[in-house]
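Ticket #4471: complex job returned nothing on first submit. Input attached below:
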Amino acid sequence: MPVAFDEMKGTDGAVRPAYSELSNWLSEVRPDVLDYRRREAELVFRRIGITFAVYGEADAQERLIPFDVIPRILAASEWTTLTRGLEQRVKAINLYIKDIYGKRECLRAGIVPEDLVFQNPVFRPEMNGQKVPHGIYVHVAGIDIVRVDADTFYVLEDNARTPSGVSYMLENREIMMRLFPELFARHRVAPVDNYPDELLATLQSVAPSSSPGEPTVVLMTPGVYNSAYYEHSFLADKLGIELVEGRDLFVKNEIVYMRTTQGPKRVDVIYRRIDDDFIDPLAFRPDSALGVPGLMSAYQAGNVTLANAVGTGIADDKAVYSYMPDIVKFFLGEEPILKNVPTWRCREEEHLSYVLDNLEQLVVKEVHGSGGYGMLIGPSADKATIAAFRAKLKSAPKNFIAQPTLALSTCPTCVDSGLAPRHVDLRPFVLTGRDRVRIVPGGLTRVAMKAGSLVVNSSQGGGTKDTWVLAG
Amino acid sequence: MRIVISHDTIYRYERPPSSVIQTLRLTPRNHDGQYVVSWRLHISVDCPLIAQEDAFGNLTHTFSADGPIDELVVHVEGEVETEDTHGVIRNAVERFPPSLFLRETPLTQADDAIMDFARQATRGTDTALPRMHALLGALNTEIVFDTDPTHTATTASEAFVLKRGVCQDLTHVFIAAARSLGIPARYVSGYFHRIDGVVEQEAGHAWAEAYIPDLGWVGFDPTNGISATDAHLRVAVGLDYLSAAPVRGTRMGGAGEEMSIRVRVDQAMRQMQN
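Support reply: We reran it on our side without changes. The output follows.
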């Protein structure tokens, strides 16, 4: 495996300009001071109670995501390129989804195979021919970015359904400012604390044209048992909007209302953090007690905006991912600014045989999986694991894609033995409103805390860092 | 055949709910061999019925009624002129290409047993039409009609294990089997005029349609072991029972719900002769 690019020291060991102040500071700061602030940060996180549930772990119901106090720094010029690429990608994603549930031109043109769409569980036939307010489907996107050298950023994954993690971006910054004011004084860090305002402006801008006056926006959660419930309540609070569950809403004559102590109040925009399947028992899973009966009929009538729209999974499915560069070209007539990780589609015979021959070098992912579950990392897997995976792959090749094992960039990270490079990725959040696209300079940097590990998912023991974009 | 329908769905509640919301797929559309002469939908509570078209092109009506509601009756009646087209459906409203109907749903998942059965039943046939006829015949004898053991949420594989079920179950197994053979298939809900002259029925009917190259969609009724005829009145289509269901609804509050169905499927001509 090639040597990873370190974002502080590059490949030749010379400190890169964006990190020069941080590097100086790290050489000045006493280890016990750093260690003390580290523990302080953990205390704060425990006190405010940011936890998440790990699926498939018997003992740990709620766990703290490890927080690393060393910030990850991006130069202004790097961020400019990223934002251009992100804006382009999300624009294409919106046009693509609109097309899939509308004219299906990209299917006719053979850009995406028909069966990949129609037989995909995340495609929602119910959305076919349906108009959504202002033609916007993905109001909040979380695009996972990895870096392999000084100039190359890849999109690892698009998250177009209910991407989470933005509360960490905001909390991490707040804690860093509290614990390391002197470090901020030595940098010009672009602020992220306007994210709630930007999100609210985005959501208000997409209210249905029919909604009277100031639109009412609510955040809909599946409830306290959801692993991201903390974030739901955190965001509702920051946005100053009601946090609701399905039972707090009802539909009457194609209008959605919220029950309040002053009687029913019309709801215009629902920022929903609940999956399609559970949103309306009359349209989707009939056994769902979490949704709002009749919501889809109000949606179909154009009287409420769902953010994100129903059926957006057809854009972020791992099987569709590999077609994204073609999707960008087809809908925008532009070359993609952000590249995809080279991807082999195991549904294609030639690709499959290459993958089977090179399992030891590849990362193989299940197309409908998420959170790092059900994947093979060839170089670190033993023979038995590879053999078992080979059988799985052969029995249902359509369900898998494969990618080269990337040498993800590293950032200096506090570990037990001191400072050490650890692999990172980045999830910036892209907001699409009727008026414009908004991207707060920063995002969630996830870091693999184990030496050599490439899996940054919090469900697999990954941690987070504050992400600094330096003002230009 | 001129089919006359009268269909009541009656809900009675021990403790009245504070509100009820339902989406109805109870209004047929025209296509070759089916012409709706008259049709009326009536609900016993006072509230607007809002008409929409769903993603499959079915006509839907949604209402939300405020309670307390002791009893709710959804009543439809109408007359439809039908012609025998040998099961071939032409000029119906189609919103999807046939390949969509290869899609699996939780109710129509083909397990190993169903896939085996589909292969066995169609052994020796080489094209879609004879395959579907072979499947139709085999299924009609494989699963016995029985209203007891299954319910609306029974899956194809559960019904296939039981070897018993109602028209919904036979249709789900047929669809699962057809799709496992690579033949697009879908669920039809509607009414069936019984050959034996029985007019009063306990429920509406359901059957399947399979997409046959060169012919288009063709109706197969595994419960009766026949292709769809002029005795079949199509009301809604979908991927499975859930997406074509005549009524999907829920209520707020209340308890002790009892639902009963009264369906009369008669012929207009005969009434006049009587």
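The longest strand of chain A covers residues 418-427. Closing as resolved unless it happens again.
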